[in-house]
C-alpha cells in the first residue's frame, strides 16, 4: 500500500524507540522505503545497527558527516521524502520544532523540510502535561503538523497517564492516512450514526445502545481524506465531527428521509444503530401507571430498513454500500448472511456480547465481510477502525 513512498523516519530518544523497530518492520512490509535518522539520545535506547538492519538503509546521525554529505546532503534527505515521521517524538524534539531550533541532524532536517510531518509523541506523563509542552504542541499543530497519540496507560517509568507512544500498527495507519490526505477529494460520502429514538409517548422511547462514537470517527476519517461528508445522526452523545455536513434526526423514518434527500454518494456507510421497531400509535399524552389497570400493550411495527433500501436502489446506488452488524452470537455466520440479505457490498461486524464493552466503549474489533471473504481485524480504537475503513474505501474508489 505504501509502495514507492519514501519515509524520513526520525527516531527521538525515549524508551518507546523500541516500538519504532516494529514500526520499521511494518513499513517495510507495506512497501515503504525508509531513511532512518536517529538523535544521539535515541542511540542510547536502540542501536543504530538494529535500525539499519530493519530499515535496509544506513542510519544518519550526524549533521557534520563529510561522507554522508558527499553522498546526499542533509537538505536533500527531506526533499526525497514523501512524509517525515517522528517516532518517538520527545518533548525536546517538539520544543525544538516549535522554536525553530536546528542544532543536530534531526532538528535541522525538520527546519529545512518542506514535507508533511507526522508526530508520534512519547514521554513521561508530567512532561506531556507540562505547560511548556502544551504550548509547544499548540504551536506545531498550528503549523499544520499532524499527530497520533500519545495513548494513556501504564508507562515504562511506572507512572500512569497519557504519554505512551501509539502502537506501531496505529502509527502505520496514520502514516497511510497522512499520505492519502486529499485522496478522496471530489468524492461524496454518506455516514449514518448514533441510535434512533422511537417515541412511545412524550416521555418514553425505544432505542438501541449507541454512543455514536464509531460513526463520528468514520465521518472524521473520511473528511480528513478530503471527502465531502454528509453525516446523518440520531440523538447520539458523541460530539459531532468537524468539517462535515451534519443532519440531526430522531427517528428511523426521519433518518430514512434524510438519507433519501441527501443526494448521490460514491460511498455510504451505515453505522447507525437504527431501532428495528416503533410503536404503531404514539400517545399524545403521557401513559399513566395506575394500580389495577392492565399494562400497556405496545403494538409494534417495523421501521424502514435504510441500508437495505439504499443497497437495492435501481438507480443512483452508491458505488460502495457498507453496513454494520452488531451481533452477540455466531458473528461471522450472521454477518455473511446479512451482507447477502441486505444487498450491501461490505459488512463490518462486531461482537457486542463479550466482556469488552463495544457499545459505548472506545475500542472495537471488526470482522470485515466482503464478496471475497472474511477478514478479522485486531482490537483497536474506534478511531483506528475508522482510519482503516477510510483507507480501504479510498482504494476501492480509486
Ligand atoms: O439488520 P440489522 O439492524 O442488524 O443491520 C444492521 C445494519 O443495518 C447497520 O448498518 C444499520 O445501520 C442498518 N440498518 C438500517 N436501517 C434499519 C436497521 C438497520 O439502515 N432499519
Q: What key attributes describe this structure?
A:
single chain, 398 residues, alpha/beta, Rossmann fold, 2 domains, 8-stranded mixed β-sheet, 5-stranded parallel β-sheet, 15 helices, 21 strands, 35% helix, elongated, binds cytidine-5'-monophosphate
3D structure, described in words:
With 398 residues, the protein is an alpha/beta fold. It has two domains: 6-179, 3-Layer(aba) Sandwich (Rossmann fold), CATH 3.40.50.1950; 188-397, 3-Layer(aba) Sandwich (Rossmann fold). 35% of the residues lie in helices and 23% in strands. The protein has 15 helices and 21 strands. It has helices spanning 17-29, 42-45, 48-55, 66-71, 74-79, 91-99, 105-112, 125-129, 131-142, 168-180, 213-224, 252-260, 306-311, 331-342, 382-397; strands at 6-11, 33-38, 83-89, 117-121, 146-147, 151-154, 160-164, 188-193, 198-199, 205-206, 228-233, 245-248, 267-270, 277-279, 300-302, 320-327, 346-351, 363-364, 367-370, 373-376, 380-381. The strands form six sheets. The protein has an eight-stranded mixed sheet with strand order 12-11-8-13-16-17-19-20, with helices on both faces. A five-stranded parallel sheet has the order 2-1-3-4-5, with helices on both faces. Helix 1 (17-29) runs parallel beside helix 3 and helix 1 packs across helix 10 (168-180). The protein is elongated. The mean pLDDT is 93. The structure holds cytidine-5'-monophosphate.
